[in-house]
Description:
Helix 2 packs parallel to helix 10 (396-408) and helix 9 packs parallel to helix 10. Strands 9-8-7-10-11-12-13 form a seven-stranded mixed β-sheet, with helices on one face. The chain is globular, with a radius of gyration of 24 Å. It has helices spanning 3-6, 94-113, 170-183, 216-224, 274-288, 307-311, 324-336, 352-357, 375-383, 396-408, and strands spanning 12-17, 20-21, 27-31, 34-38, 46-54, 58-68, 135-143, 146-152, 159-161, 192-199, 205-211, 231-236, 241-246, 250-255, 260-265, 295-299, 316-321, 342-346, 364-367, 388-393, 411-419, 429-436. By secondary structure, the protein is an alpha/beta fold.
Amino acid sequence: MSGRKQCKANTIISPLTVETMVNGGAGLARHEGRVVFIPHSAVGDIVSCRVTKTKKNFVEAEICELLQPSPQRQRTECPVAGICGGCQWQHLPYSEQLRWKESLFRESLLRQCGVEAAKILPIVPAPDQWNYRSRVQVKCCTTKAGFETGFYRPKSHSVVSVGQCPVIAAALNLLLAQLRNIINRTIYAKHIAQIDLAVDDNDRCSAVIYYSGQNIDTLAALLRGENLAADLFIQTGPKNQLTNIQGEGALQIAVDHPPLKLGYAVGGFAQINLEQNRTVVEMILKLANLTGREQVLDLYCGMGNFSLPVARRAAQVVGIEESPVSISMARENRSRNKIENVEFYRQAAEGALSHFSRQTRLDILLLDPPRSGAVGTMKGLIKTPVDQVIYVSCDPQTLARDLKLLIDGGYELISSQPIDMFPQTHHCESVTLLHYRH
């Protein structure tokens, strides 16, 4: 029987030596001519693996036994690192995490876009590699042990119980422990599938409890009676109805100098790493090099995180956002900070460039799309060129795909800066500047 036929699910293959890291965070080894992707491995590991998935040109496998650990491997901070779906790289020293993020980011852009290597800048490390997450979705389940909170195992809906998560803010770990103790052994526990937690720059916390049972009023009374130092909400019903238990639910972050105070509501978006968010804002302002005369379009503007600092230095800014919660907060933030030269519109990003470029000549397009990228907007930029494009991305693969469209369509990549927004994971943020070649 050939080696390829032996590599079906549950087959044990051994020994394998991990050669390199790949996008997505896995290590790469080879077995009888076929590539094997191994999550939670390190370069230099010699492992025995169980095949979890087999394809024509590659195999996915999980470590059964670490036969010889890599010199790069370190002890993890969290007892469930490698089991829960949150952190992929806790077993790597932070310096190694940064090295691989920068290397993989650079490789993606060089290979797919053909840009000059010197234009891809060194990665910006995070100030804190622990307790940096200001927002988190916690999964919940009820077992014989009681009400448990944690995160899904990769590619499953099985909850891995986590007592204290080392990457979420200390205030959120405390609040989660308090909620867990309150809910444990109550009639409500089995009806709670998720809790969303957030904390702002002032250590003010919020919690949204997803509840599918009856007796909402008595659950609300129970939570209210505990005098928790947090804004509390219960989310129920087919239309995601939000019931206010206590507090306003508007958190606040600061960006720019002098500080702009930006509120964001429950259900709205804010970057999870508040310190690195300020770094990104400063980077955008430096790249834009604003003179007070520019017309700027900001797509996926959220609650005005980039729009409002830019508006302080530009002639006019238009922010586009599809989320009604976020666009409402953007307008409130505009009023709160007394910035008048910015307008916010609730609509899809795709098509906005064409619409607003007919009304005025745009000098800068700023965009921060979701992980899926912005192919439609890239095509729009080729039909309706803008002198300067600043693209904030959280996914190097979709970024490279989108940048290739622009480079092939007449744009020059000036610089691309990776930023570590998510320590202990393989994820990489970046800010890329492009100019249109007239």
